From TrEMBL:
Transmembrane segment boundaries: none
Organism of this sequence: Mycobacterium fragae
Presence of keyword Flavoprotein: no
GO MF annotations, alphabetized: oxidoreductase activity
Annotated family: Belongs to the short-chain dehydrogenases/reductases (SDR) family.
Keywords of this entry: Oxidoreductase
Protein name, entry field: Short-chain dehydrogenase
One Pfam family recorded for the sequence: adh_short_C2
Length: 262
């Protein structure tokens, strides 16, 4: 397929399950891809896989909650490929030892709150800040921010993560509103259960089984499902879609919890 030939994309959190699948999908549709991750070695592995599959990719390291690193990721992409058309803001804190400390407000350590907001929200703002001018110079672009179903329905834990992701939803609307007439679109992907290695490590089997029952499809989500949606939102086929939150959760959010035994 060639929906994205001539386009250049940045995928943050590109070494993870969703990021890696998205980098591969963007490349297979013709885009050149900068794979960015705090773990540069793993980002290099993903970039190598893209290249081995016939795509074009580079690997970049950096903590994108640090503005200098975010700016450098954009500048390095421009230096290598000459333009920027697509930004997939996928970087997030997924380490199970960190998430286990993200509990309730009364138990919250300030350092956990601040780090969660920095990585899950501020990094997306900083990447937008530095990517948008490059997109405008290229004639426009598409930003796909990653949120979470946790931002729309409360749980008993992960309050810092959820609040940060709720901020992503609002950030997207403001970016779309401020830069739409310059040709820059922005949308939010709101996933439900996606079976990545990080999810499997953090959630026990009983929890996964319960969440699987809550989906309306006979299967749960895979990273490739997110990647396919990102490719669509990056392409001209979605040219009239901007400022939206798009749920991809197997229908989990379409019914009340009492129906999960079906």
């Amino acid at each position: 397929m060639s929906r994205l030939v001539g386009k250049v994309a940045i995928v943050t959190g590109g070494a993870g399950g969703i990021g890696g699948a998205t980098a591969q999908a963007l490349a297979s549709n013709g885009a050149s891809v900068a794979v960015v991750d705090v773990d540069e070695a793993k980002a290099a592995d993903v970039a190598a896989e893209v290249i081995a599959s016939g795509g074009e990719a580079i690997a970049l390291g950096g903590d994108l909650s640090v503005e200098a690193d975010a700016a450098a990721a954009v500048q390095s992409t421009l230096a290598r490929f000459g333009r920027l058309d697509i930004l997939h803001n996928n970087a997030a804190l997924t380490a199970s030892d960190f998430l286990s400390r993200d509990t309730t407000v009364t138990e919250m350590a300030l350092e956990v709150w601040e780090r969660s907001v920095a990585v899950n929200l501020s990094s997306q703002m900083l990447m937008c800040k530095h990517a948008i001018p490059a997109m405008v110079r290229a004639g426009g672009g598409s930003i796909i921010n990653m949120s979470s179903g946790a931002a729309l329905s409360a749980d008993s834990t992960r309050v810092a993560y959820a609040v940060a992701k709720a901020g992503v939803n609002t950030l997207t609307m403001y970016v779309a509103t401020s830069h739409g007439k310059q040709g820059v679109r922005a949308n939010t992907v709101v996933p439900g259960l996606i079976l990545t290695d990080a999810v499997k490590a953090h959630l026990g089997q009983d929890t996964l089984t319960g969440l699987a029952k809550a989906t309306l499809t006979p299967y749960v989500g895979r990273p490739a499902d997110i990647a396919d949606l990102v490719v669509f939102l990056a392409s001209d086929q979605s040219r009239y879609i901007t400022g939206q939150m798009i749920r991809i959760d197997g229908g989990m959010s379409a019914h009340v919890a009492a129906r999960t035994d079906r």
